[in-house]
Design a protein that fits this description.
The protein is α+β, with helices and mostly antiparallel strands and 707 residues long. It is built from 19 helices and 32 strands. A hairpin with a 4-residue loop joins strand 15 (354-359) and strand 16 (364-374).
Length: 707
């Protein structure tokens, strides 16, 4: 018996329409998908460096043999540049080596990966994860027209039912340098058989040759070497079983093949009926195929989702596969481009009938479902977008069968925890949601046919948290419209540090001191102390009694401006937006933020040090300990990316600290490096871990802390 392998189909080659023979070619991964998730984690770990790097100045700097990272649909992918030539519109054609598809992108979206680090080395040196294959069972078009191309409905069927699914594959030889595979679903149903039974195509004469070749291989298995891997022995590959995956990818990898690869068999009867319906229009209308909602809790069900229609955060619609929606739109566009299409006026409307419906706002046609018929007014639901509309019968047309068998592509969702959102924050986030593109969706459960989900950015940060970081106070927004090369602060301090790619800076530490002084006075009033009317909700500004999760540094006895991030029973997680630090506090340690304290914007700016991507881990730690944690500094602004200031740090005398770090002056062993110390009048509060020497700081309740 011939050995079988698993193939995850990533892309169907549309260029087959340039060939006379209807030979379906596709790209797929033949190895364990853990390698794909490992590569995804490598790219995620360096995306801050990719964002901060300058793109190539011209195509002359590119090499068609080199692997680059390219920003496509807000995500970074490995790609090559086959042709070093810009189009008339100024875009560059890139080939995604891990998926097999081609995109046109601006040169500004291309990044080299020639920086140090094991992750960058893997990105540069790993071979492509996707390989090109031929579908072994060559098909002829329905009607057996010799040397004709496959029909548009047939190609649409292939793209919507083959791609993003894992198949069991058996090799039956090679053609034109690419292996020929027969694809089976997990019930051992041959994909081509289903296609033939649905009337999308018929087996050509060469189908018998494929069967004969398969028989030969069965009889002589020793002559066949299955394509089980693409990595040469010299390639240094990690063991996926021993490599920990990032949290946002691990769950999606642990899904079984049956969960990750739904078969087309459940829709087989509908497909056959749809093919018959195309020949017998008098037959009663079909319904759309049911949506697949058998997801696993905590599973990432999409990384490229968009929300085309939002009524509220508890009722909005998400397209998990927008590329598939685009494929449907292309099919409809070709259909409606026929001059005879608009002239048809024989559509009969009835409740529950699928149809094509005109959307008046853009003049385009979309898949829809008729919900109610009231004389000449018809209520329809756009199944791929989620919105509803009332139209006249003249705005409706018959829907081809191949567009009916595809399920609705818009999923009704509810943001998990949205019932705990502060009203102002909820309204603002709702507006954000309609503008977002290519976000990740984590599934929690299904209630009354509604998916309860959480949404994440491409870097794994929850979108709710990102909104809180950028706009903690709704009516006092931070000023970020600095000019490049502008010195935005002559005396700044770092209030919280995660890394040189993510740290928070107080550009005006004396302003923070003034705010804290006023809050200290407020905290002395008995009415404030006894006030226990605060009701916590996500996004609600508050005053939070500081509680450090490290027991070595207990509460500092002061109240700080904050915003609620999460509510959990009798505790809440809050973000101290004047410092950039989050912690969990008891509900009894929260108070309403007086309105006069909401007029001053957040004082901590999230920053990234330009040039840090070229530093080793040892250099990075040394730079933080020598300068960022130990001194005040001047700040020069270079650019702003998604609310993060990309900056360089200078001494008060104007010397670039990055350059000073690498000067390595020769000093006597007893001589200490000169740094500008921070004292009480510069920064206050439990986050003032920059303070080194003044003993008086420990007397007023402040703490030396290195977070």
């Amino acid at each position: 018996m011939v050995a079988s392998i698993l193939v995850h189909v990533t892309h169907v080659d549309d260029s087959i329409h340039d060939h006379q023979d209807p030979f379906i070619q596709f790209w797929g991964m033949t190895h364990d998908q853990s390698l794909y998730f490992l590569m995804k984690s490598y790219i995620a770990s360096v995306q801050d460096k990719l964002k901060s790097r300058a793109p190539p100045l011209s195509i002359k700097e590119l090499d068609n043999k080199q692997i680059y990272c390219v920003l496509i649909n807000c995500q970074w992918h490995r790609a090559k540049v086959p042709k070093l030539k810009l189009s008339f519109s100024g875009t560059l054609e890139v080939f995604c080596i891990d998926f097999g598809d081609t995109h046109s992108v601006p040169l500004a979206f291309v990044r080299t990966v020639d920086f140090p680090g094991s992750e960058a080395e893997h990105i540069r040196n790993w071979p492509p994860l996707a390989s090109k294959f031929n579908l072994a069972d060559i098909l002829a078009p329905y009607g057996n027209k010799s040397n004709a191309q496959l029909s548009l409905p047939a190609m649409f069927f292939v793209k919507t039912h083959m791609v993003n699914r894992t198949w069991k594959a058996v090799t039956v030889g090679a053609y034109d340098g690419h292996q020929c595979l027969r694809l089976f679903d997990f019930t051992n149903q041959l994909f081509v058989t289903t296609m033939i039974e649905c009337g999308m195509a018929i087996a050509s004469k060469t189908y018998n040759k494929a069967l004969k070749m398969c028989k030969i291989i069965n009889e002589h298995p020793a002559n066949f070497n299955p394509f089980l891997g693409i990595f040469p022995e010299s390639c240094d590959m990690p063991n996926p079983a021993k490599t920990s995956l990032p949290a946002f990818t691990r769950n999606s990898f642990e899904i079984s093949v049956q969960e990750a690869s739904p078969s087309v068999v459940p829709f087989k009867n509908e497909l056959i009926e749809a093919a018959n319906a195309g020949q017998n229009e008098s037959k009663s209308p079909l319904t759309y195929a049911p949506q697949r909602k058998k997801f696993v809790a905590q599973q990432i069900i999409s990384t490229v989702a968009i929300a085309p229609f939002v009524k509220s955060l508890t009722e909005f619609w998400v397209q998990l596969e927008p590329d598939l929606v685009s494929t449907v739109a292309e099919r409809i566009s070709k259909l409606t481009g026929d001059p005879d299409f608009v002239s048809r006026n024989d559509f009969v409307a009835s409740a529950g009938k699928p149809c094509l419906a005109l959307f008046a706002s853009d003049g385009c046609w979309y898949r829809a479902l008729i919900e109610a018929v009231n004389d000449e007014f018809i209520t329809i639901y756009y199944v791929d977008y989620g919105n509803r509309c009332v139209v006249e019968n003249s705005c409706l047309q018959e829907l081809p069968p191949d567009l009916i068998v595809l399920p609705a592509l818009a999923f009704k969702c509810c943001l998990n925890g949205a019932e705990n959102f502060y009203k102002d924050f909820s309204e603002a986030f709702q507006i954000d949601l309609t503008k977002l593109s290519a976000f990740s969706v984590k599934y929690f459960n299904t209630v009354n046919d509604v998916l309860h989900v959480r949404l994440y950015a491409s870097d794994g940060v929850e979108l709710v948290q990102r909104r809180l970081f950028k706009f903690p106070l709704m009516h006092a927004v931070q000023t970020l419209n600095f000019s490049p090369e502008q010195m935005v602060s002559p005396r700044a301090v770092a209030s919280y540090i995660k890394s040189l790619f993510e740290f928070w800076v107080q550009l005006e530490p004396k302003t923070v001191g003034a705010i804290m002084g006023r809050l200290d006075m407020l905290a002395l009033h008995p009415e404030f102390i006894n006030q226990k009317t605060f009701i916590a909700s996500v996004g609600k500004p508050c005053l939070a009694f500081y509680q450090d999760e490290d027991t070595f540094f207990p509460d500092d006895g002061r109240w700080h401006r904050a915003v609620v991030e999460e509510v959990n029973g009798d505790t809440a997680r809050v973000y101290h937006f004047d410092y950039g630090y989050s912690c969990t506090v008891k509900m009894s340690h929260l108070r309403n933020l007086p309105s006069e304290y909401t007029k001053q914007p957040a004082q901590a700016f999230r920053c990234c040090l330009v040039g840090a991507e070229s530093m080793s881990e040892e250099d990075s730690d040394a730079f933080m300990n020598r300068f960022v944690k130990r001194s005040i500094f001047a700040v020069k602004f270079l650019k702003e990316v998604d609310g993060i200031l990309h900056i360089r740090l200078f001494t008060l005398g104007g010397v670039d600290l990055f350059e000073r770090h690498y000067e390595k002056p020769v000093l006597p062993e007893t001589t200490e490096l000169p740094v500008e110390k921070v004292f009480d009048d510069e920064v206050t509060g439990p986050f003032a871990f920059l303070v080194l020497t003044p003993s008086r700081h420990s007397e007023n309740g402040s703490r030396l802390r290195e977070m």
